[in-house]
Amino acid sequence: MIGAASKGMITIEKLCTFLDGFGLKHSSKVLADMLDQAEDGTLTHREFLLALLDAETKGRNERRWRRNYAGAHFPPNVKRLEEFDPAELESGISIGQIRQLSELGWLDTFVNLVFVGPPGLGKTMIALGLGLRAVDEGYLVCFEKMDSLVRLLDRADVERSAGFRFKNILKANLLIIDEVGYTPISRNQANKFYTLVSNIYERASIIVTTNKEVPDWVEVMGDPVLTTAVLDRILHHSRCFSLRGESYRLKYPDVFG
Questions:
Q1: What's the structural domain count of the chain?
Q2: Exposed, middle or buried, 72 (CB in 10 Å: 0-12/13-18/19+)?
Q3: Collapsing DSSP states into helix, strand and coil, what is residue 165?
Q4: pLDDT tens for residues 127-152?
Q5: Are 146 and 196 part of one and the same domain?
Q6: Which segments of 101-183 are extended strands (E)?
Q7: CATH of the domain at 129
Q8: What is the C-alpha separation between 40 and 240, in angstroms, rounded?
Q9: Phi-psi group of 104: left, alpha or beta (phi > 0 → left; psi -120 to 50 → alpha; rest → beta)
């Protein structure tokens, strides 16, 4: 009789309170449905426990993914890497290389990637696709266009939001720097950029997209010695892809407006 009375006291609300208290909020949300299935014999005890833990794991992973995706600061409408078709290019990267890069082995060994070529060939699309793939796998990613990055570096010491973003960049496993070379930067900005690259060197990976061939980077940095120092750290452990072909925007004007 005591056992029966005790069982009658075990309400779903009470169980949910315990689960919430232990931080198992996702399990708490599905508990009622899981109990119904267990009590009608659909789930064994082991299956019930596994389903409950699986719900918690998936919920936490989804929350982490949303947080990491927001923290990456990707531009709108990021496309999956599978949507990029290297056959549209004359040369530079193959489908096999795309598949290999998507496995992210380079990211675990702090290898940098450099995509060089004229505008409209998909350099940014590849970089973002790899960044999205990295987020899917639980890596911390930060995306910045070069002009935005140098402005952020200028403000990091005096503006709270810029300083917070800068700290996130330093914590990231992957920094994507888009459109290096479109706008020259000042000597002071080049020094700050060098410091950033040095801090990341052999601790995380960098993806660079640029319309400038490597020997022409001095036009961006303005100082040959500083340019050499930056390139030394980016290219030391790197894979470079020089894309060639007709601009997608010129080839498909109706798609790109």
A1: 2
A2: buried
A3: helix
A4: 999 999 999 999 999 999 999 999 99
A5: yes
A6: 112-116, 141-145, 174-180
A7: 3.40.50.300
A8: 59
A9: left
